[in-house]
């Protein structure tokens, strides 16, 4: 029963707790026992406070016994990304500069999960300052892919994705600038949503107007991600880009029929990104699934001219603003890729940023027009398969050499620049058993649509039910 609880969806677990068929304490103990048994090999959860978690679970059970009204995640174990501040629990950002930092209070994404009744299990591993899409750092080492030890779990929400795949928690959260929710979800055969910027408000943040980095939910099923989004979404007056729509509607039942849906498919984002042929082969075979569900599928892609300039320039500008001081003060304690990106940002002129914003605006307008002709866009999440944990980042794919550490993530970074919501959903496996992710993209603010399409595909294929063998 213990392991069986650790593989069930968060939606089911929340219902079991509410009906008092399983106690919050029993649910927590099952997940803690699984972490104890397997995380030594995976290295997904890097900070824990079991006593505080047990106290919270006992209080959750007491509230139910008293007949109190409880939240939609009451008693459900969750884990928080180690770049998100947790009051009273160490938050390191994967950096030796913060090895002993204990924030005084929760940041908004953490607080909203707690207010919904979730039980905090611990913090998930990240690359240093969430930079890069492979999870390793000098404090805790590398997170291993549960599907194959020795391979990357992706990043920067790699600890979260690995924890979900391994059954350590049923629900987690992460962030995504250039693919940090989507890449690890694809590598670990789970679901990750990059919402429309402002859908999940981020607070505190130094640059509240930026739309490159977002926060969002991760889980093993699309319905669980929708439940997580229903809790995380909704306006906050302190966040200038926050959307006014309440989040509750995202938890409504999702359809399994796609009759009449207009789908565009691009295997390489209009010829802009090289992709491992093994990934393309797996995903191309899934197009018939969408046709069988009633959709019309054709190959097409929006004009992504300017996406590289917008993303690269604005990311570098943000890195200088966020990490430039640390790079100059303690360069020996900051990894080289962060130093490079901050240095590029420091060299930018106002004209450079202005041109990037002009390109960004034109890109947005073209993408909005594209989605008047198509309802969703399908594309690979990643350009590469999970690679060795010993490799900092892939330097080439399909015979194409990358210029920098961001090159292998362009299947996600180009989409980040559009402002569109994008869902990574399990898209199948290679013949030797490595997961492949399918990226479902829709018009800005159409977050519900990517969930609907992802759910219908998930229910038709059941790829997400293929769990790793942890031995």
UniProtKB/TrEMBL annotation:
Domain of life: Bacteria
Single GO term (MF): catalytic activity
Listed SUPFAM superfamilies: Amidase signature (AS) enzymes
Stretch list, region Disordered: 75-98
Positions of the Amidase domain: 26-451
Polar residues composition-biased segments: 85-94
Entry-linked NCBIfam families: PRK07486.1
Name of the protein: Amidase
Natural source organism: Klenkia taihuensis
């Amino acid at each position: 029963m213990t392991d069986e609880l650790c593989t069930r969806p968060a939606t089911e677990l929340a219902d079991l707790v509410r009906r008092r068929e399983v106690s919050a304490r029993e649910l927590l103990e099952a997940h803690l026992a699984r972490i104890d048994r397997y995380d030594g090999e995976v290295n997904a959860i890097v900070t824990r406070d079991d006593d505080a978690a047990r106290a919270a679970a006992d209080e959750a059970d007491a509230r139910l016994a008293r007949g109190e009204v409880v939240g939609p995640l009451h008693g459900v174990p969750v884990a928080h990304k180690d770049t998100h501040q947790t009051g009273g629990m160490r938050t390191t950002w994967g950096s030796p500069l913060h090895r002993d930092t204990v924030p005084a209070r929760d940041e908004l994404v953490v607080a909203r999960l707690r207010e919904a009744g979730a039980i905090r299990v611990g913090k998930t591993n990240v690359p240093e300052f969430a930079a890069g899409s492979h999870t390793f750092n000098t404090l805790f080492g590398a997170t291993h892919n549960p599907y194959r030890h020795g391979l990357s779990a992706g990043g920067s929400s790699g600890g979260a994705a690995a924890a979900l795949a391994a059954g350590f928690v049923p629900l987690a959260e992460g962030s995504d600038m250039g693919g940090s929710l989507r890449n690890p979800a694809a590598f670990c055969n789970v679901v990750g949503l990059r919402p429309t910027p402002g859908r999940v408000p981020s607070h505190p943040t130094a640059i509240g107007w930026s739309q490159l980095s977002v926060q969002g939910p991760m889980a093993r099923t699309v319905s669980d991600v929708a439940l997580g989004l229903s809790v995380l979404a909704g306006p906050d007056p302190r966040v200038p880009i926050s959307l006014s729509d309440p989040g509750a509607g995202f938890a409504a039942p999702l359809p399994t029929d796609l009759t009449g849906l207009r789908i565009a498919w691009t295997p390489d984002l209009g010829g802009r990104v090289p992709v491992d042929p093994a990934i393309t082969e797996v995903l191309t075979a899934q197009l018939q699934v969408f046709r069988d569900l009633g959709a019309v599928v054709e190959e097409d892609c929006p004009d992504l001219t300017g996406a590289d300039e917008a993303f690269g320039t604005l990311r570098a500008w943000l890195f200088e603003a966020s990490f430039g001081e640390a790079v100059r003060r303690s360069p020996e304690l900051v990894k080289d890729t962060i130093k490079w990106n901050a240095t590029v940002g420091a060299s930018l002129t106002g004209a450079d940023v202005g041109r990037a914003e002009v390109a960004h605006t034109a890109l947005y307008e073209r993408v909005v027009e594209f989605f008047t002709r198509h309802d969703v866009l399908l594309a690979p999440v990643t350009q590469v398969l999970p690679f060795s944990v010993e490799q900092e980042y892939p330097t080439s794919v399909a015979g194409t050499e990358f210029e920098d550490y961001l090159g292998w993530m362009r299947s996600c970074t180009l989409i980040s620049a559009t402002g569109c919501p994008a869902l990574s959903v399990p898209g199948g496996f290679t013949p030797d058993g490595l997961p492949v992710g399918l990226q479902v993209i829709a018009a800005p603010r159409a977050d519900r649509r990517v969930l609907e399409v992802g759910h219908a595909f998930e229910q038709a294929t059941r790829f997400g039910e293929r769990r790793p063998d942890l031995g």
